[in-house]
Design a protein that fits this description.
The protein has 203 residues and is mainly beta. It folds into two domains: 92 residues, no CATH class; 78 residues, no CATH class. Helix content is 0%, strand content 37%. The chain has no helices and 14 strands. A hairpin with a 4-residue loop joins β11 and β12.
Length: 203
């Protein structure tokens, strides 16, 4: 049984169509954005492109927002000015994107990629929840470790089509079973900004 929380936001595992090979795409966060972003955070499109490289601009998603993908990398070379010249004044902060800092981040944005995320609580969760939709919690991460605080808000489970995530099952491993104090579930982004429509109803 899993007695330890492995909270680290969301992480991609595989594609439902076998078309994803681990690829991520580059996005930009301008210094006017006051949100802190960590690997494992969900992000959304900001609706413009304020980078000279022409890549889209994103911001940290807030619970309930449609999502464009999950952050999987924040390279040192991507934080600094808009051209990607790094600010090396404090190397300890490069495990996350600082607030109000120009930064390029790597995002897995394929609508068909399956994610893993930890439940906010196991109370009331059963396998009958597979197929339902759910919200996420955009809790602040740990600035000391760069660990994302995002998790699955299981209290919001419902058939509502516009909820941003769909529960697909459980992460298959020996220490991840019903009754464990910490459970990881498999998810698909249901309300994806590169998808068609605003999601499908849960069952």
């Amino acid at each position: 049984m899993s007695q330890t929380s492995r909270l680290s936001g969301f992480r991609p595992t595989k594609s439902l169509t076998a078309s994803w090979n681990g690829q991520s795409n580059t996005y930009f966060m301008p210094s006017t954005d006051a949100t802190v972003v960590m690997v494992g955070d969900l992000v959304k499109l900001a609706g413009d492109g304020r980078s000279p490289t022409g890549v889209p601009t994103i911001t940290r998603a807030v619970a309930g927002d449609p999502v464009v993908g999950v952050v999987v990398g924040i390279p040192l070379s991507g934080q600094g000015d808009v051209n990607g010249v790094p600010d090396v004044s404090n190397l300890n902060v490069f495990n996350f994107r600082r607030a109000n800092t120009n930064a390029y981040v790597m995002v897995v944005d394929d609508p068909m990629v399956q994610l893993v995320g930890q439940l906010s609580t196991v109370a009331g969760f059963t396998t009958a929840d597979f197929g339902l939709n759910v919200n996420y919690r955009a809790t602040a991460g740990n600035a000391a470790t760069g660990t994302s605080g995002f998790d699955v808000d299981i209290a919001t489970k419902a058939a509502t089509a516009t909820l941003p995530l769909k529960i697909m099952g459980m992460q298959y491993k020996l220490d991840n079973a019903i009754g464990d104090p910490f459970i990881e579930v498999l998810l698909k982004i249901n309300n994806h900004q590169y998808g068609s429509g605003t999601g499908t109803a849960g069952v």
